[in-house]
Structures are given as C-alpha cells and as structure tokens.
Amino acid sequence: MLERLTFERSVPFDEDTSIWAFNPFGKVPCMMLDDGSPLFGGLVICEYLDSLSTNGRSVFPTGAARWPALRQANLGEGMFDATTNMRVEGWRKVEERHADYMLRERRKVINALDRMELEAPQFATAPFHIGHICMAGGISYLELRNPIQEHDMVAGDKTFEWRQNRPRLSAWYDEIRKRRSLQYRYEWPQSKK
Ligand SMILES: N[C@@H](CCC(=O)N[C@@H](CS)C(=O)NCC(=O)O)C(=O)O
User: pLDDT in tens for each of the 193 residues of the chain?
Assistant: First the structure.
C-alpha cells in the first residue's frame, strides 16, 4: 500500500505553507487522489485507504461493533484536536492568551483520557480497528507535546502524565504500540527538511 503513496511535506503553520491550496481548513493530512481531487479529514483518508484493502479485511467494523469503534475513533481524534488547540493558543505571549479557552481544551483532553480508561476493558480485546488507530495517535501526540505539563495551569500539571491513574489504558497502549504499523515512521528525504 505504502508504495502507492507519494508523501509531500507541508508544515501547516509556516507562513508559506502550501496546504491551503489543497485543504480549505489548512490542515494536514490532505490526500490528493489520481484524478486531482483532495480528501481531507484524517478519518476520511483512513476510510479511503481502507477501501483499497485487497485481503477482505477492514479496520471499520460492521454491525454492533461499528459504533463503539467509531466513538473511540472520535475520542482519539477529539483529544488530538484539543491537544493541538491548547498548544497553538500557548504559542501566544502569556498576556495575550485566552486562559479560559486553554482550560476548556485541557478539560477535553483529560475527559477523553478518562473515557478511554473507562472503555479500555472493552476495546483492549476487540480486533484492531479505526478506534485503536485514532486513540493511539491521540495519545502519542499528547505524549510528544504535552501542553498540559508545558503550560502548568492547574495545580499538579507540572508533573502531568496521562498514564497516572489510568492503568488499563496505559497497559493497552504499551501493547498496541508494538504493532508494526504503529512503529512505522516515514523518513523525509534530507532535502525536504
Ligand atoms: N482531526 C484533524 C486533525 C488534523 C490536524 O488538526 N492537523 C494539525 C496538525 S498540527 C493541523 O494541520 N493544524 C492546522 C490548523 O489547525 O490550522 C483532521 O483529521 O483533519
């Protein structure tokens, strides 16, 4: 599958980013199809790639399993979005930041983690699906950026760690991240950096 894709780097917050030409929301990822039409929205891109599956398997379950999987996909995606929003607002000078907005995004991150911890016994044993992909993506981004720790807005945030008091989510994440697909890192050619 990967050999059928060409990757192009676009940094959405760069002044001269090319992303606006492809995605009206100015966000990565955006996928250009062979007919020149764009697909934007990570989940839509995932569904398209899934539709190319040649082994009859899909990460979008059907039947009763579909709804928890999609809910968990939204949990992961929503947490990613809230993490990004908190981080981007934090780029302003302290006196120009909207602290109430950042606290609201912070709350979404914590709530999403709590909800994942609650649902972990169920999703930990489910066959690999889109919810797992989005939750692992959301957690890995939070781990990478950790705006809650960086901005230290509430007592205890200085040492904020998403794993604290979330043993089931933590154990699930340690297992799922061993998958080859989640280990994969695209290496940008040197010239594009
Ligand atoms: N849920 C979003 C995630 C994409 C996203 O938020 N990407 C960030 C990466 S930092 C971005 O491009 N942000 C630019 C912006 O928010 O304007 C989607 O699927 O499109």
Answer: 788 999 999 999 999 999 999 999 999 999 999 999 999 999 999 999 999 999 999 999 999 999 999 999 999 999 999 999 999 999 999 999 999 999 999 999 999 999 999 999 999 999 999 999 999 999 999 999 999 999 999 999 999 999 999 999 999 999 999 999 999 888 888 765 4
The CATH T-level fold of domain 63-181 is Glutathione S-transferase Yfyf (Class Pi); Chain A, domain 2 (1.20.1050)
**Both structure tokens of 129:** 């699906």
User: Are 19 and 27 within 8 A, CB to CB?
Assistant: yes
CATH 3.40.50.720 holds for 2-57: no
Q: Which residues is 31 bridged to in the sheet?
A: 39
Distance 183 CA to ligand 1 centre (A): 21
47 lines ligand 1 (CB under 6 A): no
Spacing, Cα 27 to ligand 1 middle (Å): 4
